[in-house]
Amino acid sequence: MSVQSVLFDAPGPKARARHLGLAVVGGLAILGLLALIVRGLANPDNNQLTADKWKPFFTAEAWTAYFLPGIWATVKAAALAVVISAVVGILLGMGRLSQLAVVRLLCGLFVEFFRSVPVLMMMLFFYFFGLYALGITGSALSLFGVVAGLTFYNSSVIAELIRSGVNSLPKGQREAGLAVGMTPLQTLIAVLLPQAITAMLPSLVSQLVVILKDTALGYIINYPELIRAGQNFASSEGNLIPTFIVLAAIFITINYGLTRVARLLERRLQQSKRGGKTPPADPMLNPALAPQAGALVGDGRL
């Protein structure tokens, strides 16, 4: 009996052999490309792979004057954008689920507009807006441009994640909240949002990783983030390729750590949800809600 997947049938012997051949060819092509890259970098005229190009990374000055300040600037901008985007995104998501048509329209226009505009364009706009309209100067100006650009874009994305998460829940969740006398807003906040955020946590974490990576766009508006710090270091040492390899390793480490923390949080939330003793919202299953249910029945609302 053949094993079948939901999306496709399990491959047969010929298909498996074909897939293996394609994998081998693809692997050889990747190895050949890597060999060409290494050969180009090992050019005697400007060899980027010698030990002398890597020695500067083992000095204290490289980290205290360049990389650690760049990491701090990147994490600071990302943290501010994450917190503000999360708050604004949840409010916008609630607005898109509002019972008031005007609120839904305004929030919808906001989300669709800022989701469609490139992040770099928004950073440039808020940079010059802060300079000419608000009078911000110095390092605060570039920080304002980066955080504002990231916030307006990512809050719109988070709003859509929240909206889709709430709409994916069973309709009985909303009906149960309304049945016990909650208003639509109370039902959204107390019943639907906690479940939607838990269900959409992997997607939310992915968006947080995107925020951290997009701080590199602040290089355009002179924000001293990690990429700019690395380029300044490479200009002084003449080791551009090794520097970008180190920068990539730093970004991978930070993003991997963030992903691991988020997975741990998700696992804890799921365990608490399964092991918790939260009473059911159904008045027929929760004795504590029986008086409310009886009153609703007496009023003819149940």
Q: Briefly, what is this?
A:
By secondary structure, the chain is mostly helical.
Helix/strand layout:
Layout (H helix, E strand, L loop, with lengths): L12 H29 L9 H4 L5 H37 L4 H16 L2 H14 L6 H29 L3 H9 L4 H16 L1 H14 L11 H12 L2 H36 L14 H9 L4
Helix pairs in contact: 3-4, 3-6, 3-10, 4-6, 5-6, 6-8, 6-9, 7-8, 9-11, 10-11
Your description of this structure?
It is a single chain. With 302 residues, the protein is mainly α. It has a domain at 73-270: MetI-like fold. Helices cover 75% and strands 0% of the residues. The longest helix is centred in the N-terminal third of the chain and has 37 residues, at 60-96. It is globular and about 75 Å long. The model is unreliable at 1-5, 281-285 and 287-302 (pLDDT under 50).
What Rg, in angstroms, do the CA atoms define? 26 Å
What is the arithmetic mean of pLDDT?
Answer: 81
The helix content, as a percent range, equals over 70%
CATH fold node name of the domain at 73-270: MetI-like fold
Q: Sketch the major β-sheet.
A: none
Quickly name the level 1 CATH class of the domain at 73-270: Mainly Alpha
Can you name the CATH architecture of the domain at 73-270? Orthogonal Bundle
Percent strand equals: under 5%
What would you call the quaternary organization? single chain
Number of helices: 12
Overall body shape: globular
- Kindly state the number of beta strands: 0
Name the poorly predicted regions: 1-5, 281-285, 287-302
Spatial gap, N to C terminus: 51 Å
- Helices and strands: which structural class? mainly alpha
Q: What is the fourth-level CATH superfamily of the domain at 73-270?
A: MetI-like
Element order: H for helix, E for strand: HHHHHHHHHHHH
